[in-house]
DNA sequence: TTCATTAGTTACATGGCATAACGAAAAACC
DNA sequence: GGTTTTTCGTTATGCCATGTAACTAATGAA
């Protein structure tokens, strides 16, 4: 037999689930020394790159629900990596910024994740990794229009 | 700005998480009419293709822990898609087979997931999808040796 | 002013996945 | 042949990720 899961191997989703599970396990192990998880790391990066970001916008960018973001930010704030500051113009909203420590941890974590990424893509040529990125983004695009036919702009875009 | 998550877009894991979340959402919606989830569908396929399979072996193949498989099989058995039968030679173990209904549902579900797969990979050439499979399998391979340096054969293989 | 909307939050439910520990049966051992 | 060890399926449990509903406070529009 060609492998007990040969039927499933025909599906991109199956290969992707297996690959992603391993990536997630490894990246979480890599981030643990920094006190970060995959989600908190992602949030930290976006906040560092977009100072003054509001929570709702961050939730949009990371495609997570606002309630989930609360605990993520609690986590980052407790670790003194991020601060929430009430917005001057809109006193409902918070503006997010990284602390000095947050910027430093972010740098180191990014470097660690870059090494992790290189490890996981080893054996693949640069062009193959590029093609992988392209294919994944196309799937993301397809997946979005499937879930919301009228969507063409939900994702990360530049602020107005 | 090139996009608020441009730092993260450099990582395969980030693109993959986003793509996979959408795939998972869509495939679960596709499978819902069959009373299946992603995991139960996977188990059903492998059992159909490998009659008489033991639970431990199935857990190995799908890379899930034995305790988790129990509920998955309870689910499939309750839906009358799969039967557990005590093994003649080893009365601790169960041999798994699909029922007639299970085979039928499996066929239809596979067809539905094939359509889903085509939808999610639309816009990509056949060669690009092939390259995607190849890249994902290479990552799976890399991920396994990372987590278990002495591993080269944990995955699905033919029975002795 | 009143009403609808928005930002963040709380509470809660669900599903995925991992570990520890158990009873039963088999295998290994002496 | 009886004892120990291992294996199979199971139970119980907990953690993490994720989603929904409902609340509050503040904003903005009618």
UniProtKB/TrEMBL annotation, chains A, B:
Residue ranges constituting the HTH marR-type domain according to the UniProt record: 1-141
One Pfam family cited in the UniProt record for this chain: MarR
UniProt cross-references to InterPro entries, sorted A to Z: HTH_MarR-typ, WH-like_DNA-bd_sf, WH_DNA-bd_sf
Top-rank lineage group of the source organism: Bacteria
Record key words, sorted: DNA-binding, Transcription, Transcription regulation
GO molecular function, one term: DNA binding
Protein name: MarR family transcriptional regulator
Protein species of origin: Pararhodobacter oceanensis
């Amino acid at each position: 037999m060609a492998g007990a899961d040969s039927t499933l191997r025909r599906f991109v989703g199956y290969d992707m689930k297996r690959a992603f599970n391993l990536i997630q396990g490894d990246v979480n192990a890599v981030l643990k020394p920094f006190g970060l998880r995959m989600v908190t790391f992602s949030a930290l990066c976006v906040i560092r790159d977009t100072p003054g970001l509001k929570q709702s916008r961050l939730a949009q960018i990371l495609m997570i629900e606002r309630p989930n973001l609360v605990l993520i930010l609690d986590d980052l704030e407790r670790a003194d990596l991020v601060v929430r500051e009430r917005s001057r113009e809109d006193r409902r909203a918070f503006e997010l910024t990284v602390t000095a420590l947050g910027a430093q941890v972010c740098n180191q974590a990014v470097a660690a994740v870059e090494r992790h990424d290189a490890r996981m893509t080893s054996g693949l040529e640069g062009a193959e990794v590029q093609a992988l990125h392209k294919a994944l983004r196309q799937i993301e695009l397809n997946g979005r229009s499937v879930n919301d036919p009228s969507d063409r702009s939900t994702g990360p875009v530049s602020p107005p």
